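Let us work through a complete example step by step.
Step 1: write down the sequence.
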Amino acid sequence: MVGVSKIVVRIKLTPSPEQATVLASTLRALNDHATWVAKVAHERGVTRNYELRKHTYRPLREAGVGSQAAQHVIKRVCDAYRTQRSNLNNGNYGLKGSARHKRIESTPIEFRADAAHPYDQRNLSFALDARTISLWTVRGRLKDVPFAGSPDQTKRLAEHKRGECDLLCRDGVWFLAVSVDVPDAPEFEPDSFLGVDLGIVNIATTSDGQVMAGRQINRYRRRQHRLRAKLQAKGTRSARRLLKKRRRREARHAKDTNHQISQRIVAVAERTGRGISLEDLRGIRGRVRQRKSQRAALHSWAFHQLGQFIAYKARLKGVPVVFVNPAHSSRECAECSYTDKANRVCQALFVCRGCGVVAHADRNASRVLARRGQDTWNAGRKSHVPPEDL
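Step 2: predict the structure and record it as tokens.
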């Protein structure tokens, strides 16, 4: 059975000044209503959708919120409290009993005035030929709002089933993030696995020896850090305005770089008939202890995002992906499997104390991950051997 991947297509809306005013007032009103619903949920201790609807749906409708929009407001609040509860239970807001934990647990959730709001097919429709949308607003149905997108984006919107959309405004520019169901390609049987070692000095190193986005991207991040520090120290109005203008630039650059890296890795695996073996890095920021000077480098790159990009691009191409335990992969020899802390001489050099092999440390780790990926795949592989005749 072929699966389905949910791909987000983000198109840019180009409303007229009058249309932009209506969209802004709608987004602000819906987020104000969401903050009120969150306060009711906190006071009454009700965070389930059906129960919360009993207390808030009618007041929302009396306030002029459309039926579908009101349900989305309530669902947003429930989802927000579910996420908060998960973070509290996992210790992401400090230990239970700590000041931060108590403060977050005892304070109702508030929504920003420009926070994204979901729409669906009942209160938003597309006219793809005219490149316009029509959607519900607090001032009635707003029609003929133009949008811009690449030919690939328009093709995906036209050919695949569309789900929920998020209306959002970023730095005065309007966007619509549309969820699209794209069928996965049939997964092929890999001949072997391509190991991918993720790091800070070298963002990604494959078992083929290809090193991606190392020195250049780190130099860019250090430059951005110095520039932010300089502007923050200056403290003038123009400096704050420039900081606001540049605040998402590094995140966009990181996302674009992750897209390029993941595209190259998946293309190599598809062309050579191999699967991809990735490190399971969940919780790494909580496990790893770094000196203060190294913390910015550890926390400034989106490793999880890169892994997710590789995974979803691989599903679209039918390339198998396995996530393996990365423990001691930097200390294990890819030739003889001898593991010792002393094997890792420095960041770039690996010298095995067992067999004496000398290798690039990241490439050695990626080869170890490739072997672990093959072992993981073999352990879960269905037997293709025909049964013996009885």
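Step 3: interpret the result. DSSP finds twelve helices and 14 strands in the chain.
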